[in-house]
Amino acid sequence: MKDTQSNTDAREVMNIRQASQYLGVSPDTLYKYVGENKIPAFKLGNRWRFKKSKLDEWMETKSSESEDQSKKKSKAKAAAH
User: CA 64, 32, 66: angle at the middle one, nearest 5?
Assistant: First the structure.
């Protein structure tokens, strides 16, 4: 029986193209985020790499921040009325 864990490990680290597809943004946008230190990435040689688990954590954090901001805006709007 073949160990399926090795397939998962192979996809755990993504290149810029794979990460951009995973996140649904263009490679240019992803390069911009990397340059601005907005997204977790590391260099392997001279190429950027992205750990899927770190991207998932980053998206979860960003999602929570967006929800918090939406709640604050809703509360501010309700208080203004």
Answer: 15
Residue 36 lies in domain = 5-80
CA 74 to chain centre: 26
Closest to 10 in 3D by CA, of 39, 41, 52? 52
Overall number of domains in the chain: 1
Q: Which two tokens stand for residue 76?
A: 């501010």
Residue 73 CA to residue 29 CA, distance in Å, equals: 27
Dump pLDDT digits (tens) for 45-58: 999 999 999 999 99
pLDDT tens digit sequence for 30-46: 999 999 999 999 999 99
CATH number of the domain within which 46 lies: 1.10.10
> How many C-beta atoms lie closer than 10 Å to residue 14's C-beta?
20
